[in-house]
Amino acid sequence: MEISASVTPPPPFQAIPIVVAFDNNYCIPAAVSLYSMLSCAKQELVSQLFLRLNPFAKKRFSKMILCRLLLASIFSQYEKIIMFDVDTLFVGDISESFFIPMDGAYFGATKEDLSLLGIHNANDLFVSRLNWSRGMGVKLNHKSLSFQEVGILYENPFNAGFMLVNLALWRESHLEEKLIDFFKTRDEGLLLPEQDLFVLVCQGRILEMPCKYNVHPRMVGTKMIPKKSDACMLHFYADEKPWKHFGYPYSKEWHQVAFKTSFESLVFEDLVGKIETFTELNDHNKKSFFEFLNTRLNKKFLIQYVLFKVFKKLESFCLR
């Protein structure tokens, strides 16, 4: 069943429940994601944010992943929610997406352009997954996906980084039980656990949403997303995380937002600590990097940074 998205005008006021989940390693990216989301949002529409910051297990299949399978139970008071990953940067308002009719779909998501990854058929995806598993240190076993299932994933390349979730239908169809039962039979055989689960269990009942709601930075400048203003959310779902290297796409824009959060001193310290690793930047990016740092070195920030360092020293001394 082919389902496509259309938008109905939003009511004068509607609370939009938004859910994110992340572990302690993603506190700063989450702060950037949420700050940028709220900065771009129409404040009268986005009024509720459910932020779950827990010391989740650090194993590969953590509670952070499993909680996605239990959304209908966790948020029993809602019929529909928006959920997104926090390795993201919002450049537009997403509130309109909440009013897209679900039309019998379990959830709405965008499709990836696999050709950007050099994947042009199911066999390419199969080989890529083998390579990804080695790079991630994951040993695929007898519970891994069959080639037929890889074919389903190729034909339905939905990315779970941004989801409009029809919780009412989840409850009506007992979808949680189906997801959990499937997960039990596969566990570590799944390379992209929640994404693979959702596509394989819900195939045929997934709403394809406009790609602007989940854009990989490399898509900007292509036919799908001609310019950044055509996107709502940039999703850094590959290796090029903007906080890891200033030369990665949209790293400067990401850091600009990071310096507006309460983590600005940590972000500054991290950038300064990475200066030696930026020697491979071209001259333009080097100039951009140092100009960016220079604009942050005002009196107010330097005082805050000195106090931050003093506090860290005191904390370290007291915890000995």
From TrEMBL:
Pfam family, one: Glyco_transf_8
InterPro entries according to UniProt: Glyco_trans_8, Glycosyltrans_8_dom-fam, Nucleotide-diphossugar_trans
A GO MF term: glycosyltransferase activity
Coiled coil (UniProt feature): none
Organism: Helicobacter pylori
Entries under SUPFAM superfamilies matching the protein: Nucleotide-diphospho-sugar transferases
Gene (name only): lpsG
Entry keyword set: Glycosyltransferase, Metal-binding, Transferase
Superkingdom assignment: Bacteria
Official protein name in the record: Putative lipopolysaccharide biosynthesis protein
